[in-house]
Design a protein that fits this description.
6-stranded mixed beta sheet; 6 strands
Length: 269
């Protein structure tokens, strides 16, 4: 007579355990973003964007480094959580172009040589690499578009987020599991700047990262910045220093606008 109640109790404990794991995953996601930002932020840095760097006299390499490493707006972890939107805008929507070819490609490429093209390429990389929530998949996507000498993927913000989420849910990188889904939808972006006659661009995307484990889910606003270089094969993640970590905020909020994110129109997919 006790078998059915025991089964119900076990199922209830399993559901509670799953919920707890998801909550741990959320904490890990937020912590990953904040820790990643502080890796490039000295303790005395004020919570406002750094001024634009002065013109560099020693060549493009110095200008590229200054642009890539200039810090983004610091935001608290709470800014990434869903909250009220604002009617303010950082500027008009950015139209992201479609790739000129896409058939048979895992990651869409062949975006035009323009800052908007670099932004579209980063959005395509991140949306493709994050799908499923496996850091190994993101690592392969990153490697496909990284030039020799590009920063190690292990230090990138999204890779760190995915790795911590996997650890929080007890699923190893590269391991397939039923009931786990992760999706990243890019909605906003910004062009931090360009140099080398437009051949080098630092761009940032902002989107909603949605995670679900057996029906328990959450969504956060996560940003990603990368230094991109134009090559004969299109836009690639540039060699050289890692771009300063992106500001992460819930898209469309006051914090996102303050960080400079603008709505994107069009789609790289």
């Amino acid at each position: 007579m006790t078998a059915a109640p025991d089964r119900r109790a076990r199922r209830a404990r399993a559901r509670l355990s799953t919920a707890a794991l998801v909550l741990l995953g959320v904490a890990g996601l937020v912590a990953a973003v904040i820790v990643g930002h502080y890796r490039t932020t000295p303790p005395t840095t004020p919570s406002v964007p750094d001024p634009a760097p002065a013109p560099q006299a020693s060549g493009d390499a110095a200008a590229e480094r200054a642009l890539a490493t200039r810090l983004m707006l610091w935001l608290p972890a709470e800014a990434a959580q869903p909250h009220d939107l604002t009617t303010r805008e950082a500027g008009p929507a950015i139209t992201v172009p479609a790739p000129s070819t896409q058939a048979g490609q895992w990651i869409p490429t062949a975006f035009p040589q323009s800052p908007e093209g670099a932004l579209a390429q980063l959005a395509a990389l991140d949306q493709t690499g994050v799908a499923g929530g496996d850091p190994d998949t993101y690592g392969r996507a990153y490697a496909d578009l990284a030039l020799p000498g590009a920063p190690d993927v292990a230090g990138s913000g999204l890779y760190t987020v995915l790795s911590r989420f996997r650890r929080a849910t007890g699923v190893a990188a590269g391991e397939a599991t039923a009931g786990l889904s992760v999706r990243y939808e890019v909605t906003h972006g910004l062009v931090k700047g360009t140099t080398d006659d437009g051949g080098f661009a630092v761009v940032c995307v902002l989107g909603q990262l949605s995670t679900d484990v057996h029906g328990y889910g959450t969504t956060l606003g996560i940003g990603d910045c990368q230094a991109m270089r134009w090559t004969a094969g299109g836009w690639r993640i540039s060699d050289g220093p890692r771009a300063a970590y992106a500001s992460s905020a819930w898209p469309g909020t006051t914090e996102a606008v303050s960080a400079g994110y603008r709505a994107l129109s069009g789609s790289p997919r």
